Amino acid sequence: MQYEYANGIGQDSHRFMQPCEAQLRTADKWPKKLILAGVEFPDETPLVANSDGDVVLHALTNAISGVTGINILGTIADQMCRQGITDSSAYLAKAMSFATEQGWELRHISVSIEAKRPKFTPMIGPMKVRLGELTGLDPQRIGITATSGEQLTRFGEGEGIMVFCSVTMRREEI
After folding, report:
1. Would you say residue 138 lies in a domain?
2. Containing domain of residue 157, as a range?
3. Quick check: is 21 in a domain?
4. Model confidence, pTM
């Protein structure tokens, strides 16, 4: 069997919510949660977004869109948001469904995170497991790295999170 391979690259970034933006903040609790790769980071400042702000799932969705040629983040995700769908895993599922329709099979995910905070190392294992659950990929085929970027950017200074994601996909050659 012969396969055609494709690589997709996705990027996304969001800034952290500021206290003045959290009108519903009470007793030092944010109205939203910080969610990355579908995993909640307890007691951490959330990201500003119309959705749940999962910058990792957004970058992954963009990477898959790079292979399929169908952009999910933008018009499609905006429509979903207006319908009350703000869970970024739904955007990823939409991207995966287009990939499946085109015959693509996800083979590898690589995620690179730039941020000063939160601490990622203790959460990398759970993030890989959750990404595996969302994509059907074995967590051993998922790589996640994180860096502060030596404080050379606003992300490294702690103002937000930036993620680059690369995917490898294959389908049978026709």
Report:
1. yes
2. 3-16+33-172
3. no
4. 0.93
